[in-house]
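Example (one chain per record):
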Amino acid sequence: MHIKNHCTGHIDEARLQFVVVCVKHNGQWLLVRHKDRATWEMAGGHIDEGERVLCAALRELYEETGILKMDLETICDYEVIDGSCSSFGRLFYTTVEELCELPGYEIAEVRLFDKFPPDSTYPDIYDILLSCIGAYENNRNGSLIDGVKTNIYFVRHARPDFSIKDDMTRPLTEKGMTDTRKVTRVLSDKNIEAIYSSPFKRAYDTVKDLADENSLEITIVEDFRERKVDDVWVEDFNDFSRKQWEDFNFKLECGECLKEVQERNVTALYYILKRNHGRNIAVGSHGTALSTIINYFNPDFGYDDFWSIVDKMPYILCFKFTDMKFTGMEEVKLCKT
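Predicted structure:
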């Protein structure tokens, strides 16, 4: 058996079969022991059919350690060559401040180690992965020494034309288009270096003037799209919203729950954060999608808070990070004229 590591993205994601998550707690290794084994291993496992690679890593991390975290960092891909056959996986990294109760799947216990134990479950594979982790940590610690700051300005779209029921193509009203200039003006001194957007027209059009003024392309990120309510129009949106905020798993037959919306939006946030370290960036977003991100960083944010910003269109909220750590959020006030 031969093990090779590859730069992330070198292997087509459709070929990846496994995920491994390196977890550190106060500098110690957090390892798990399966109920059927006496050896220790990093959290990880198979990627389910149709499952995204990052979602698989998040799921395995929770199932095997009880840890719920969205900000996993990608180290590399790896290949296990056995004769004429190859299997592929991706290695992730994260640090945690607190340990969690096991959720009761296949893991018997979790333990902290000062040094990686010799009696590991996959010693041949881990020899390569441990060297990748060591190199990653050396580079990471060196590059983060000054505390690099990144600001992500989420721009909730301007006023849309609600007479158009199709969520994807609903345009801005004439006033909404005029108000996009307010977004451009208030962000004109923020040194915006990259712009992303939901694929929905009203979000894209809200940041288009900003992009034109700064000679920037808008990158569409599908996971920043708004929550899907259902295949039919919901007349009592107030009642529907209250039910969703009271139960993050509540959804209509063909719609999404807030938990699903939050997971994909926060995952997308960390995706662009890693690719724009130390920059100021803008994101065209939506009221519910943005609210689930707020709730992720501030769990006290609920239905009443959501309803307080429902009519704020456009609305800008800056999420601040030092290195990869969230440090706060602040509303950017728009001028009235």
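Caption: The chain has two domains: 2-143, 149-332.
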